[in-house]
Amino acid sequence: MRNSMISIRSLVILYVVLMPASWSSTSSNSVLGKVHVKVMNMLGHGRSMEIHCQSKDDDLGHFTVPDGLDIEWEFYVNFWGTTLFYCDVQWNGSVWHHFDAYSYQRDDGRCDTKCSWMISEDGRLFGFNQYRGTWDVMHFHDA
Q: What is this structure's pTM?
């Protein structure tokens, strides 16, 4: 019984010592890391967009974002690495367009600490790749 208690205690100590080192990784957004998300309205011609963003646990609400402005929020990636924030957006009476604003599985290694999105003048979705420094064409997941 004493040996099993020592083994469990050793595992707990090892976990406490090693985990903080992985949390401070700079090459990838480790679990529990802080992420900043920005969605920019670059539709032009004074067109506002309606946007609603949320996660399983947090509904950020509905907003009207004027042309040239953005909506931003921050959060911490959950322990399990399953964090997902998604948005629905529309402009000029269009259908609602859906996209994932942050998905740990997709974005770990793409936009670890700062995920920026842009709705362009022609209504396309672009995501900024933090590591390559490029705006990549992304796709809405419309119904």
A: 0.78
3-state SS class at 39:
strand
Each of the 143 residues of the chain gets a pLDDT tens digit; together they read 555 545 545 443 434 333 443 333 343 445 678 999 999 999 999 999 999 999 999 999 999 999 999 999 999 999 888 999 999 999 999 999 999 999 999 998 899 899 999 999 999 999 999 999 999 999 999 85
Backbone angles phi, psi at 16, to 5 degrees: -65, -35
Q: How many CB atoms lie within 10 A of CB 78?
A: 15
Q: Over the Cα atoms of the chain, what is R_g?
A: 19
Q: CA angle at residue 113 from 28 to 54, to 5 degrees?
A: 115
Cβ-based burial of 93 (10 A; exposed 0-12, middle 13-18, buried ≥19): exposed
Distance from C-alpha of 11 to C-alpha of 139, rounded to nearest angstrom:
44
Alpha helices in 24-138 (DSSP H): 104-107
Contacts of 138 (CB under 8 A, 6+ apart): 99, 117, 125, 126, 127
Residue 13's SS3 state is helix
Strand 114-119 vs strand 34-41: parallel, antiparallel, or unpaired?
Answer: parallel
